[in-house]
Batch of 2 targets.
Target 1
Amino acid sequence: MRMTRHGRRAATAAAVLTLALAWTSAQATAAPPAADSPSATAVRQYEVAGVATAAERTALARTGTAIDEIRADTVLITADEAHAARLTGLGYDLAALTAPEERGGLRAAAPSDYHTYDDVIAAVADAEARYPGLVTSQVIGQSYEGRDIVAVKISDNAATDEDEPEVLFTHNQHAREHLTVEMALYTLGELTSQYGTDAEITALLDTREVWLVPTVNPDGKIYDQESGTFRSWRKNRQPNSGSAALGTDLNRNWAHEWGCCGGSSGSPGSDTYRGSAPESGTEVGVVADFVRGRVVGGEQQITAHIDFHTYGELVLWPYGFTYADTAPGLTADDAAAFEALGTALADTNGYTPQQSSDLYITDGTVNDWMWADQGIFSFTFEMYPSSSSGGGFYPPGDVIDRETSRNREAVLTLLDYADCPYRITGNEAEHCGTA
């Protein structure tokens, strides 16, 4: 594992950082990394030896491989036999693994452990009915298959667009990451039920406007969850011209440094396929338009953002497209504020804080776009578990309450600093015009 810089929390060599996808059953229908067919294919997890640094992980990812877990000097990947053979031919040392539960891990969840898309829409409607002054919602667009993408606003006077800092929480860009939708429902329930009772929440909602997008990728969520068995599907469900493979990785489709740096795939069959052009993914265009629509009087009203993912127990910040701490549009003051605030967020939930590229290079990501294009302090949270032994993308339902409430203080901390994130480094006078 690449050690973090400038005093970021360093994980022990034995710790496992996890990203991308868990072990996938033989019934999974996600296409293997370099294939152009969406038909069902048997895939399994492999441990790849001798991949110890961010540069080595990036080189592996550039073969079209999605990285599952990062260990001290190996990584885990998911691949079919053909892709594994291609990697072997490139000189990689692969060892096939059994399923996580056969390695002593927890049982995976059942699809019924998680709320469905329809459940989410009903929960939003219920919150509006129960808290009419506190909650409003709007359909900000439709998914590729025509489902509503909903943004929920929570504030003391939700029906009015007040001159208050706004914070955005997005969830479920990646279809199989169902725990993130549970996070959205937890936040909605906690902020509404505790307003007027909890002094901190009351003060924050009196001075902030909160936006939740509970599922960015409803088509993918439904496809992954509602057949009766999980399919380990990551992308959206949009066809790709000239290919039988379906779907774009929405978190490689944002319009900043899109496809710039080998941090995504140009193959439609890859789980990290970046799409045909920036914002070609229908759902990315919807959310990006919503964010651009929050520019009022020439000023972006959204000041802070978390994009929730699973899994790995990480707090990540820009940039992902470069290893450098600073780059065009990201000054030393900006980087210091990102690190300080990201570390403060991680201190509340026990996650590991680090710049995204400490893992490996990614491009076209939501965090990089939010910051570089819109000036929003944007973080990714990789939620529970820390490894596939905890259930990977599908942890059992009995951990949902614990692992969503685990982020309560992080959410409130971000809301607190939303008036001026530079306040955490003492630079508010210079950057926010306040002392």
Note: The chain has two domains: 17-103, 111-432.
Target 2
Amino acid sequence: MPNIAHTYYPQQGSLVVLGAGESGVGAAILGKDKGFDVFVSDKGAIAENYKNTLLSEGIAFEELNHSEERILKADLVVKSPGIPEKAPLVKALRAAGVPMISEIEFAAQYTDARLLCITGSNGKSTTTMLTYYMLQKGGVDVGLAGNIGKSFAWQVAREKHAVYVLEISSFMLDDMYHFRADVAVLLNITPDHLDRYDYKMENYVASKFRMIRNQTAADYFIYCLDDSEIVKGLEKYSTKAVHLPFTQEQIVNVGAYLDEQKDIQINVPNKETFAMNIEELSLQGKHNVYNNMASGLVAKAQELRNQTMKESMGSYVNIEHRLEHVACIGGVNYINDSKATNVNSVWYALESFSPDIILIMGGVDKGNDYEMLRDLVKSKVKAIVCIGEDTVRIHESFEEDTDVIVNSSSMQDAVEMASHLAQKGDTVLLSPACASFDWFKNYEERGDKFKEAVMEL
């Protein structure tokens, strides 16, 4: 059975895709293959590779403009997750009653694959990649999609798999209504993207819990029992799915926990139990114990063999731009954590390293509350080098907690300053807590520039 009953959305007619990035172009191709009259519209410039794909597929498109009159006549709209609800065109489509959904929701109509879906404020990419790696090692016919890898819609159209591991953001969830996750993973909920949620935490929490809507008693809900926002949310949002909590602070009969010997214990009903010492994990740090617990529960729910799980969890190499070791120069370790675009990610990063840290941070502030970092900054950070255009709040937040806070004029400048401040045994950590698009196109470019600057030292 497909993951959405077909009757919810039009199955023919005019399909408009807003946004011509990875997800948009994938949705356009799937729509074309399913017989829709497809039109792609992007208010920005379309990247050359996506433009060439649309041309070769014979799909009509426009860039640097939205032809509103044409778009409002659509039978169905697939919207890029990056377009906010308050955009005038989105408001106009809502007012006109045109159904508007995410690429994930659109593609789920056309597949009967098992969907293993991972969301959370932090650790999504690591957990998604680790789960995918484990299933691949176990010989599962698995695809990787969502916020990562090739578009889910494109894969459903052209590269079918029996199982998909999907990294799902809150922005995607906002446009998902009838989608059903066979396995839903909720890693944590900490303040992020609050500018998209009227600066109300409860709106952001509600978005994350959309993941468990439509789950049945045959499905699994995996979540962190140590996360206060999740625990609060469980009182408000319910699911018939089998609950599999994971925790490092208590013992659970079903789910995953850490025993006194520091062994991760995983128990899923009617499956073989699993145990592995945290010293054997390839990804170290408290946050990665959580990520391994979550991935391990998904793998167990998929009936992976213990040996496969153990080998995978012991050999997995982390993704680029997430606590990525770049180099050790003069006894100083340089770490690229450019993917840390919120305060909680930086907390995880600081927690992962011993003192003394020279922290490079800053960028586009999304309404950050830096209070949660103060104790770690006091105890571990000996200097902060600011990047980005707006550094005032970083200075105000930490001026009493660390001896040195300086501004830089470029990433190269920041890395050179950090290298002068660092001594043998120190760590230079790029973990910005902010979005990147004042100085950079995205966090990847920011991380790449950091790595280039380090290699030039």
Note: The chain has a mean pLDDT of 91.
